[in-house]
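Glyoxalase-like domain protein
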Amino acid sequence: MSKSELKRMDNVGIVVESLDDAISFFDEIGLKLEGRMTVEGEWAGRVTGLDSQIVEIAMMATPDGHSRIELSRFISPAVISHHRTAPVNALGYLRVMFTVKNLDELVSRLTRKGAKLEGEVVRYEESYQLCYVRGPEGILVGLAEELGN
């Protein structure tokens, strides 16, 4: 038997309470809504181990089409816990990082819409300008702007 071969990473999943707020946040960063639908039934529950479930999902894609974020709002069963206020050194999946153009302008737009800067915007040598931003429901994203390009 040959070793399986990794082809790509399809998406990162984020569970939210408000799909509309999360879609708006990621749209502001530059992702595009590819589709929105409800997934339900016994087959879906077999994949997740949650038995029968009803989940509204929205798929957001990066402009290059290579990466996606799957936003999920569980209707049934109910969400049982969260880590919205976990610090950046908490165990587990924490954030996704996007490379953007004009970081300062994007951070300004996001904070006007209610996002909070976690820490501050910092410069790493002459390579990057970086920051973390918390969006709706405490979603943490990293933003990086390549410098000198």
